[in-house]
Write a structure and sequence with these properties.
single chain, mainly alpha, Ribosomal_bL28, 39S ribosomal protein L28, mitochondrial, structural constituent of ribosome
C-alpha cells in the first residue's frame, strides 16, 4: 500500500530525518560549504588517543580465540576553549578511573597538557601567540612549518575553529597572490612557488566558505540575502513617481504648445471673460445681502431682526 500515499515511495528505503541543511536558511547554503562540513564533522579523524590495530582478525593470546578487529574511536569532548587554540587533534576524554584496588571506580576527565607558544605564518607574514599542545608542535615540525601543517591537515584533524579560520585566511591570501608581501617581491615569489600547489584542491567558492562554523555560515548567507533583496524606502518610490508625473505633465504642455496660436488666444480670452463674470457676481450687493441674511439665521448669537 506504499504506492497509495504521496510519501509512500519515499518511505520504502526508510524514513529520512530532516537535517540542518534541509530546512530554513541551512537549505540555502551552497554546496561548497556542505563539502567543508562533511570534511569537518562527518569524516573519521586520525587516531590520536588510541593505537589502531591492523588487519581484520586477531588471535587472543590467552584463549587462542579468533576475533574480528574492532577499532572503535574514543568519544571526544570539544570544550569552547579548544576552539580558541590549536590542540592538534586532541580533546577532553570522559571516562572512569579506578584509583585503588578495592575501591569503586570514579568519573574522571583526561585533559591535554596546554601551553602557550608563538607560531609564524610565512604566507600571512605574521607571528601569533596561541595555545597549543605537544602534539601540535610535533606536527608542525613534521610538516616543516606552520603553514604546511594547516594546509596539509584535513578539517577533521584540525578540529579547532581558530585553526580553520587561519587556514581560510592563508588560502585567500594565496588566491590573491599574497598582497601582504607586496613590499618584498623576492619573498613573495618564493612563498607563491612553495604554497601555490595547495590551491589545486579548492575552487574560489570553496575557499570563500571554508572554515566557518554553522552559525557563522548562517549569518553570512543571511547577510547576502539581505544585500540582494535590499528594501527600498517609500520616499524614494514616491519621489520616482512624482518625477514621472512631472515629466508626463511637461510632455503634455509641450504638445499643447504646438497647437495654432489662434485657438489658444480664443481659449484664453474666453477663460478670462468667464473669470471676470464670476468675480462680478461675487461682488454684487444682492449676493452679499443674501449671504448675510443666510448667516444671520444660522448664528445663534446674532441680533434678531424686528418685525
Amino acid at each position: 500500500m506504499a504506492h497509495a500515499t504521496k510519501q509512500g515511495p519515499q518511505l520504502l528505503n526508510g524514513f529520512k530525518r530532516l537535517t540542518r541543511f534541509d530546512k530554513g536558511l541551512g537549505a540555502q547554503l551552497p554546496e561548497a560549504y556542505k563539502k567543508f562540513w562533511r570534511e569537518w564533522k562527518m569524516t573519521q579523524p586520525a587516531a590520536v588517543h588510541y593505537i589502531p590495530k591492523d588487519g581484520v582478525w586477531e588471535r587472543d593470546e590467552v584463549t587462542g580465540e579468533i576475533k574480528p578487529v574492532q577499532n572503535v574511536p574514543i568519544p571526544l569532548i570539544d570544550p569552547p576553549e579548544s576552539h580558541q587554540g590549536i590542540w592538534g587533534g586532541e580533546a577532553v576524554i570522559k571516562g572512569f578511573q579506578k584509583r585503588q584496588r578495592l575501591s569503586r571506580r570514579v568519573p574522571h576527565f583526561w585533559v591535554p597538557v596546554l601551553k602557550r607558544s608563538v607560531v609564524h605564518s610565512q604566507v600571512l607574514n605574521e607571528y601569533m601567540s596561541v595555545v597549543v599542545t605537544d602534539r601540535t608542535i610535533e606536527k608542525i615540525h613534521e610538516c616543516h612549518g606552520f603553514d604546511h601543517y594547516l594546509l596539509k591537515t584535513p578539517a577533521c584533524d584540525l578540529r579547532s575553529a581558530l585553526a580553520l579560520t587561519l587556514k581560510r585566511k592563508i588560502l585567500i591570501e594565496l588566491l590573491n597572490n599574497c598582497p601582504s608581501l607586496a613590499g618584498q617581491p623576492s619573498e613573495r615569489e618564493r612563498v607563491l612557488k612553495e604554497y601555490k600547489c595547495y590551491l589545486e584542491a579548492y575552487t574560489p567558492e570553496e575557499i570563500e566558505w571554508y572554515g566557518y562554523t554553522y552559525d557563522e555560515a548562517i549569518k553570512k548567507i543571511a547577510a547576502q540575502i539581505r544585500e540582494q533583496n535590499k528594501p527600498v524606502p517609500h520616499k524614494l518610490e514616491f519621489r520616482r513617481k512624482l518625477i514621472e508625473q512631472l515629466q508626463q505633465a511637461n510632455m503634455k504642455s509641450e504638445t499643447e504648445s504646438d497647437e495654432p496660436s489662434g485657438k489658444l488666444a480664443a481659449k484664453s480670452s474666453s477663460d478670462s471673460d468667464a473669470d471676470i463674470e464670476a468675480l462680478t457676481k461675487l461682488e454684487s450687493p444682492s449676493s452679499s445681502s443674501t449671504s448675510s441674511n443666510w448667516l444671520s439665521k444660522i448664528n445663534p448669537f446674532g441680533k434678531k431682526q424686528e418685525t
